[in-house]
Amino acid sequence: MKPYGWELLLDLEGCDVSVFNRKSIRRFFVSLCELIEMEREDLHFWDYEGVPEKDLPTEKHLLGTSAVQFITTSNIVIHTLDPTGNLLMNCFSCKEFDPDEVENFTVAFFGGTVINCHYIERMW
User: Fold this and answer.
1) What single-letter DSSP state applies at residue 64?
2) 26 backbone dihedrals φ, ψ, rounded to 5°
3) pTM for the full predicted model
4) In this structure, how many other beta carbons lie within 10 angstroms of the beta carbon of residue 116?
5) pLDDT of 85-94, one tens digit each?
6) CATH number assigned to the domain comprising residue 9
7) Distance between CA 43 and CA 68 in Å, rounded?
8) Residues 55-71 pLDDT 10s
9) Burial level of 110, CB count in 10 A (0-12/13-18/19+)?
10) In what order do the strands lie in the sheet with 86-93?
11) Is 74 inside a domain boundary?
């Protein structure tokens, strides 16, 4: 068996929630993809921007932004948890990348501390 792809799963707490917005997250994806030499494709957001307060979910863990940055070799996904300042990030690619570089860049961009980190090879 040989690696088909590589995936970094990274969880942060105590992040700077002022960067939990579409503009900053878009900038994060652009900068990260430049850093690890990945070609960006479509970017999609799911959040509650523009939703009246009365229609917001009551479950606090749902308040945040989810974003998927497709790259030619797979995708990078972010979920922010605004009430807690936590961030969950997955970077998956069939092109190898340096997980320490991605981890360090993500922490520097969003602040916070790493509470969980796994780097795995996906096999075929």
Assistant:
1) S
2) -60, -45
3) 0.93
4) 10
5) 999 999 999 9
6) 3.60.90.10
7) 6
8) 988 887 889 999 999 99
9) buried
10) 40-46, 66-71, 74-81, 86-93, 3-15, 111-123
11) yes
